[in-house]
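BACKBONE GEOMETRY TOKENS:
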Amino acid sequence: MVKKKGTALLVVYADVDIEQDAEFNAWHNEEHLPERLSAPGFLDGARYQAIKGGPRYLAVYELESAAALQSDEYKRMSQNPTEWIKRMSPMKIGRGTVRSVCTQISPEASDPDTMGRGMAPALQIGRMDVPADIEDKYNHYYDSVRTPAKLTVPGCLFVRRYHVVEGNPKYLTMYELEHEKVPESLPWEEHRRRDTMHEYIGGSYGHAHGSPGVYRRIFPPRAF
């Protein structure tokens, strides 16, 4: 089995002006994603487009660990950009660009049976700032109540939570979904309605602009 999941993510979000869409997508699909996936410690990757929230484009890279970003090969790529990346990088043409390096906090240990799981057809991603005085309760509720409940929803394939160690806000939750309509389903809405996170933690946390976002995979292309 080829390992496709590690203990960290690199996620990059960006809005791009419509007149640059075609070349931005061509650069990302034909050059940038394959190049990054050739670096050691980069296990898998895909690109997504928001159907709810934002920013509009999202690239997700599964990393063996955050140390993958310190390898000589990755540093060489970053320090020797191609002419195409100089012109089309989201750091160059993107608006609202966000780059985050995330280390997994839940589940604490990955199930070996899931290590070959490919990039999900759709994602819901929440990016949250949580006040320090309610973090312990927030983490406990998410892992012991909210995640188990959401995993009973048809089409919710997996849930992972992360600390953001480069970028912000501090917490990221990734729901891997069978399709982008799962968060609109009656079972999902029923769990959302019954959720008592805010009462339990005795406070509230803040979402980053555009969060939670629902994203549909656009590359590699989906079969449906």
Observations:
- The chain has one domain: 8-219.
- The first strand starts at residue 8 and ends at 15.
- The chain has a mean pLDDT of 95.
- Residues 8-219 form a domain with the Alpha-Beta Plaits fold (CATH 3.30.70.100).
